[in-house]
């Protein structure tokens, strides 16, 4: 496999730094405010810095979430290495029409794929496009991972049609990288794989039409131009 863009995780890194900085700021403000109120003997107002400190914990949790995302993307790159050089990998791309990034774009004679990577822990259940995290009656709904993958695939397909006039279906795939994750899948809307299943799935994937090499290069060039702008 050839890696055309090495993952710098710019989007994930920026979110990680943002949440870390907010956490530190709120924590410091909360501690200093508590000290000042203590010196001024204002015990009734101590609830204000306590709320600030508790709020900082939310951003600490978000910081760990984005850090886990970076680790997950790196694991996917390693998992794809056994693929031969007819596969081209482009990591961490932000299209002009998207707020977030696409974790991985894989180009091959078998088609174009977008990989949505998740580094969740605990238990995750999927019913079609509906997702839950947590065990049994404690499960809580979360944002649809499969819908996110399909949106990314649609955005890439639309981008290719606008830029090079190519109308092509882009295959969405959801990849989970945490080996301890309990994953229950019922009638998935897109392929949902563990990271160790990924290369085997792609090698066995049956395409209706083989993409010619020159078309793959044209698609890669169009995407790389976006990468150079960011």
Structure description:
The protein contains 5 helices and 10 strands. It has helices spanning about 10-40, 45-80, 145-165, 200-205, 215-230; strands spanning about 1-5, 90-95, 100-110, 110-120, 125, 130-135, 140, 170-175, 180-185, 190-195. It has one domain. The strands form 2 sheets. Strands 1-2-3-4-8-10 form a 6-stranded mixed β-sheet. The protein has a 4-stranded mixed β-sheet with strand order 7-6-5-9, with no helix packed on it. The protein is elongated. With about 230 residues, it is of the alpha/beta class.
Which key features would you list for this structure?
230 residues; alpha/beta; 6-stranded mixed sheet; 4-stranded mixed sheet; 47% helix; elongated
Question: What is the structure about, briefly put?
Answer:
The protein is an alpha/beta fold.
H/E element sequence: EHHEEEEEEHEEEHH
For the largest beta-sheet, the strand count, sense and barrel status come to:
6 strands, mixed
Low-confidence stretches: none
Q: Roughly how many Å is the radius of gyration?
A: 21 Å
Can you count the beta strands?
A: 10
Share of β-strand residues: 15-25%
Oligomeric description of these chains: single chain
What's the average pLDDT?
84
Structural class: alpha/beta
- Tertiary shape: elongated
